[in-house]
Specification:
Order of helices and strands: HHHHHHHHEE
Mean pLDDT: 84
Number of strands: 2
Structural class: mainly alpha
Distance between the termini: 79 Å
Helix content: over 70%
Strand order of the largest sheet: 1-2
Length: about 350
């Protein structure tokens, strides 16, 4: 509001200057000599003070906004990382058998990186631009209220487009995250087994496998970029229509409008072309980046193994003898998995191996 009021105040100021200049010829010479300098100085001080106050308010609000949002988002990312770290440390060993190391590394590197560095900037950018675009429409509607009539169908068309695009974009982004994991996993495994690869002279085979994983990831990434471009073209069409309606509205209703208002509305409307497209792309980007949050939250909810310390404590002198007894033991790796030990009974006496 402070940002838009600055420009609105300039229009008001210009209107006052015009009315003063048109009224000046009708004043007497004596009164103009005595009153004009002080009046002019008063007017200039008044208008400049209000304008400076609005500018200062916009700057202060901008700083406070950024500090609050960044603090909140970075704190959230830190909490999620710590929760995921504790959950992964405390989960069953079976989890590490069924999940390759690349998949786990992907959550701690790329996904946490998105949350730490990219998501806060994109989020702040998105909602700042969103409020600016709302301001553009509000200013245009306050000058020419009939502009709201074409804005409603354009808004509905935009919402339909955004929903249609996000359905695809979100799935493509998930696919990109999934296609990235084998690249990490393969690279990590190759580095760990370098001596084995060299011994069997399997460098070429592993290089081809890595290239195929990387190609697959590049294909998905290119698809994501193309869907963004498709969406951007249609958004620019909506903005062009809005500018057309605004320009013709100013011509049709020119009798009831002032030059300053028309200038303000047209200037604001033209800024929509780049701004609106970028706003929606940033909103989609925020939603796509939330898949990283989704993936991290999934790991914070991992089932934990038994606690490291139990309430039932063994006696102080335990163990007095190194004796292990298996009495009809059945064991499986998962609750619904097949039994790998079936009805095992055995006694291992002290000193036996």
């Amino acid at each position: 509001v402070a940002y838009i009021l600055q420009d609105w105040w300039l229009v008001y100021w210009a209107r006052a200057e015009v009315s003063n200049s048109t009224a000046a010829p009708f004043t007497s010479i004596n009164s103009s000599i005595n009153a004009t300098p002080t009046d002019g100085e008063f007017h200039l001080t008044f208008y400049l003070s209000i304008y400076s106050g609005l500018t200062a308010a916009a700057v202060v609000f901008g700083f406070v906004r950024s500090l609050l949002i960044f603090h909140g988002l970075v704190k959230s990312a830190q909490t999620l990382h710590n929760n995921m770290f504790i959950a992964v440390l405390g989960t069953h060993v079976h989890f590490f058998d069924v999940n390759p190391i690349g998949r786990i590394l992907n959550r701690f590197s790329k996904d946490i990186g998105q949350m730490d560095s990219m998501l806060p900037i994109t989020f702040v950018d998105f909602y700042q631009l969103f409020l600016q675009n709302v301001g553009v429409v509000a200013v245009a509607a306050s000058v020419i209220p009939l502009l709201l009539i074409p804005v409603i169908p354009l808004l509905l068309f935009f919402l339909y487009l955004r929903r249609y695009y996000l359905h695809t974009s979100r799935d493509v982004k998930r696919l990109e995250s999934t296609a990235r994991s084998p690249v990490f996993s393969h690279l990590s495994s190759s580095l760990q087994g370098l001596w084995t690869i060299r011994a069997f002279r399997a460098q070429e085979r592993l290089k081809k496998t890595f290239d195929s994983y990387q190609d697959l990831h590049s294909e998905v990434w290119f698809l994501f970029l193309m869907t963004s471009r498709w969406f951007a073209l249609r958004l620019d069409s909506i903005c062009s229509l809005f500018i057309t309606f605004t320009a013709f509205g100013c011509i049709i209703f020119r009798d009831g409008l002032e030059a300053g208002q028309v200038g303000l509305v047209l200037t604001y409307a033209v800024t929509l072309v780049g701004n609106f497209q970028w706003t929606v792309r940033q909103s989609a980007e925020v939603e796509n980046m939330m898949t990283s949050v989704e993936r991290v939250v999934e790991y914070t909810e991992l089932e934990s193994e038994a606690p490291w310390e139990t309430e039932k404590r063994p006696p102080p002198g335990w163990p007095s003898r190194g004796m292990v007894i298996f009495d009809r033991v059945n064991f499986s790796y998962t609750a619904d998995g097949p039994l790998v030990l079936k009805d095992i009974s055995a006694t291992i006496h002290p000193g036996e191996k």
